[in-house]
């Protein structure tokens, strides 16, 4: 009876540890401004970590502190390795068919680190068949040798929308915009729907569709008015 109780507590400790790792991944996937490249980088990093976790179960339990505390250093991973193998397989089924290759992801995050232009153009053509391999390679080389762009200090969306212009790099610019505007998560949709539910409550029965649209736009827009400028420009009329 005591042995069965220990096994149950061991299973609980293991699940607590692996759930903690999954929660860490979940936090990285949340937020408004994450690009699909950043999200896929987080997922692929976690897939590699799962392989490390699997090996660690048979060694020192470095990534399973609660399990280590429960087993008191006596490794009994047989019941948990199968769970991790299924989790690894589940991640492969869900994400391994994602079409953005490593070179394309690297090109979005930092195009100056792309070393093999042929491999990059081949991956890009699988996603965008209309793209010319010769033009892709030529534009990427021109971009990598542009000192002004190389020294640009800005985030990824700003780099591709403001710094890399369609006039100088039409193909790279167009392809980057396609990738950056992909919906990497449902966070924005879910947050907008939650905002709409808050605005459209039972106490606002006379709220029209047009007014609701305006309220939701005001609630979810990232734009912040310059209140000091507005107050300075406003002329107050004093009564005599």
TrEMBL record:
Single GO MF descriptor: protein dimerization activity
The HAT C-terminal dimerisation domain, residue ranges: 155-215
Any Pfam family: Dimer_Tnp_hAT
Top-level taxon of origin: Eukaryota
Family annotation (PANTHER family): DUF4371 DOMAIN-CONTAINING PROTEIN, EPM2A-INTERACTING PROTEIN 1
Official protein name in the record: HAT C-terminal dimerisation domain-containing protein
Source organism: Pogonophryne albipinna
């Amino acid at each position: 009876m005591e042995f069965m109780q220990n096994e149950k507590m061991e299973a609980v400790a293991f699940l607590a540890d692996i759930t903690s790792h999954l929660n860490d991944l979940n936090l990285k996937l949340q937020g408004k401004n994450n690009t699909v490249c950043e999200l896929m980088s987080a997922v692929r990093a976690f897939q590699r970590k799962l392989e490390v976790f699997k090996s660690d179960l048979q060694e020192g339990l470095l990534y399973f502190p609660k399990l280590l505390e429960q087993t008191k250093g006596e490794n009994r991973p047989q019941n948990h390795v199968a769970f991790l193998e299924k989790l690894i397989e589940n991640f492969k089924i869900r994400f391994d068919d994602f079409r953005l290759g490593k070179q394309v992801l690297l090109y979005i995050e930092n195009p100056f680190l792309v070393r093999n232009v042929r491999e990059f153009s081949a991956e890009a053509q699988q996603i965008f068949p209309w793209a010319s391999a010769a033009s892709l390679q030529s534009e990427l080389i021109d971009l990598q040798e542009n000192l002004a762009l190389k020294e640009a200090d800005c985030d990824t969306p700003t780099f591709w929308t403001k710094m890399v212009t369609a006039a100088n790099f039409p193909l790279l610019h167009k392809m980057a915009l396609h990738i950056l505007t992909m919906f990497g998560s449902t966070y924005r949709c879910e947050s907008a729907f939650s905002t709409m539910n808050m605005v459209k409550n039972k106490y606002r029965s006379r709220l029209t569709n047009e007014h609701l649209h305006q309220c939701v736009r005001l609630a979810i827009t990232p734009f912040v008015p310059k209140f000091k400028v507005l107050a300075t420009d406003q002329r107050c009329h004093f009564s005599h």
